[in-house]
Amino acid sequence: MSKERTNGEPDLEDPQTWDFETAVERPGVARGRVVVSVAFARPDFEQVASCAEREGKRTSEFIREAALERTVRPNPPVYTSSSSATPLITTEISTVTKFTETSRTVAKP
Questions:
Q1: Which sign does the torsion angle of CA 59, 62, 64, 67 carry?
Q2: SS3 category, 4
Q3: pTM of the model
Q4: Whether the Cβ atoms of residue 2 and residue 14 lie closer than 8 Å to each other
Q5: b/e for 56-82, b at 16 or more Cβ within 10 A?
Q6: Cα gap 48→57, rounded to integer Å
């Protein structure tokens, strides 16, 4: 005797209700996804979520795009010590310096 739920559907957790004769095989998923949990201090999260909203994006979409954008920079920072902010600051200063030097070259007074 097969078990049924109150809505008339079979209880899919009960192997007695499984239909092995007409089972459908499906190919595996070619491109799986990975879910990553990231902790933010509340003020940091609110800042990120607010920026995402201003851009019309979901917070997760905004974070994903920001992380991927970071991987394609010409000189992404490499974190090798406990002072992980140092490479980031150096890279950002280098970028600003290059921009400033280019601006001076292009826009002569």
A1: negative
A2: strand
A3: 0.43
A4: yes
A5: eeeeeebbeeeeeeeeeeeeebeeeee
A6: 11
